[in-house]
């Protein structure tokens, strides 16, 4: 059973859509009648989420995407535009972590957390904002964990990314949009 709401027909991109909050977000938008473009690294998991969203009545496109790759995220934006003709909402939801003592956690794990949880969100915004400016509208939702605001002695890189990424991207779309509208 589906219900239709104010997002009926909206084109919504969700990164990190293969599980957790991303999956729940996709299902909520599907129930509300949105058209979904789901992205994450795991294509098979995305297909499972997409199947459930289709049962809920949502037209759904799956794009396996690694948000740490700026070109892949630009490709995601292009696929979303081809699918829906516009992008109304972009939910930047990727989040990874590693738990352990800082000095015992491999440096490569810390780097991957920073690439996904900080650079990935920047890549999402960098792909979405030009589309929103061209359209004259759009909503960018940057999911940040509360873990960034609490003491996290065994998740140093995760906390650092949440803190650094918690400042909002301020994009104002005045009646006449332009590059000077970025704050």
UniProtKB/TrEMBL annotation:
Keyword flag Oxidoreductase: yes
InterPro entries on file: NAD(P)-bd_dom_sf, SDR_fam
Name the UniProt record assigns to this protein: Short-chain dehydrogenase
Species assigned in the record: Tistrella bauzanensis
Keywords, alphabetical: Oxidoreductase
Taxonomic path: Bacteria, Pseudomonadati, Pseudomonadota, Alphaproteobacteria, Geminicoccales
Similarity field: Belongs to the short-chain dehydrogenases/reductases (SDR) family.
